[in-house]
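Below is one such protein, fold included:
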Amino acid sequence: MTIKKVTSREFNQDISKIKKVCEDSPVYITNRGETTHVLMTFEEYQKLTGDTENIVDLLAMDDCGVDFEAPKLKGDLFHPADLSD
């Protein structure tokens, strides 16, 4: 895997081209000669981090291992506004 380096100026001038390049390998983006960012596909990022769940999957979980019971509210949930002056 060959890692491509581009300057932040090159990146800003042709984002579409750089996005295509990162489909094959990560792209290092430099600023004044220092590598400051890495662009990669989301699929590669998920492989790297082991993060394959998304928020929809997490919210749909029946048993997440956390016991939580919301407290019951007492009284009215709202009060009419008093607009008399």
Remarks:
- Residues 4-52 form a domain with the YefM-like fold fold (CATH 3.40.1620.10).
- The helical segments are 8-13, 15-21, 42-49, 55-59.
- DSSP finds four helices and three strands in the chain.
- The chain has a mean pLDDT of 84.
